[in-house]
Write a structure and sequence with these properties.
It is built from nine helices and three strands, in the order αβααββαααααα. The chain folds into two domains: 73 residues, Orthogonal Bundle (Arc Repressor Mutant, subunit A), CATH 1.10.10.10; 140 residues, GntR ligand-binding domain-like (Four Helix Bundle (Hemerythrin (Met), subunit A), Up-down Bundle), CATH 1.20.120. Helix 4 runs antiparallel to helix 9, helix 7 packs parallel to helix 9 and helix 8 packs antiparallel against helix 9.
């Protein structure tokens, strides 16, 4: 094996470890405020200590982890204030990007939106029966909202939205999980608004969709 091959293999291991740790943070398997001990993570994720440091610094840059210098790393905490900030940032990005996407709508965009909604709606029906999988629901929820803004013309906006969405989704997993039929109906309303190119109704529906999630989270007293 050459040096280049070893490097590519190490990068693959590092990318896999990054995705797994990030996913475990988003889904709450690594809890807010939890200390991230390198030796323990090394055993759990099968990556070296040096690679773990790179992964955790990368996650710290994204806001999922806190780097505490010599004290090490811990999972970023959650708070009502942070949830409200994420909700407003998500609305700011997504409402603007939907407006641009609706204005730039074409057949390919419409097909992406309809396809993404079909997968999400099917998963939501399973979730209501208790047979759905959280990771699949998260994936299709994210894909639908990304499809709605996919004609915004800005890759940076799409990437930023995806990052904010994952941070927001972490609260769904930790504070309020799946909420039943209400969000499914709101997703249906978003689809209808998209097909009509009705940006105003879509923006109003999205605000209700996000605000209801935040209110539910705060009502559970899971946040302070």
């Amino acid at each position: 094996m050459t040096l280049v091959e070893r490097t590519e293999e190490q990068e693959a291991v590092g990318d896999d470890g990054y995705r797994r740790i990030r996913t475990d943070i988003v889904f709450g398997r690594l809890r807010p405020g939890q200390k991230l001990r390198l030796e323990g993570l090394k055993e759990d994720y099968g990556v070296s200590v040096s690679t773990l440091r790179e992964i955790l610094n990368r996650l710290a840059a994204e806001g999922f982890v806190l780097a505490e210098g010599r004290r090490g790393f811990e999972v970023a905490p959650i708070s009502a204030e942070n949830l409200r900030e994420l909700a407003e940032l998500r609305l700011l990005l997504e409402q603007h990007a939907m407006g641009v996407s609706f204005a730039n709508a074409d057949v390919e965009w419409e097909g992406r939106v309809v396809s993404a909604h079909h997968k999400l709606a099917s998963t939501e029906r399973l979730m209501e029966t208790g047979l759905g999988e959280l990771e699949q629901w998260k994936r299709y929820d994210g894909e639908f909202h990304q499809a709605l803004i996919s004609n915004c013309g800005s890759r940076m906006l799409m990437v930023t939205h995806a990052l904010v969405f994952d941070k927001y989704f972490r609260y769904q997993m930790i504070a309020f999980s799946y909420r039943g039929s209400e969000p499914a109906a709101q997703h249906e309303a978003l689809l209808e608004a998209a097909l009509k190119r009705d940006a105003a109704t879509a923006a109003e529906t999205l605000r209700a969709h996000v605000s209801n999630c935040v209110e539910h989270a705060l009502a559970t007293a899971a946040l302070k």
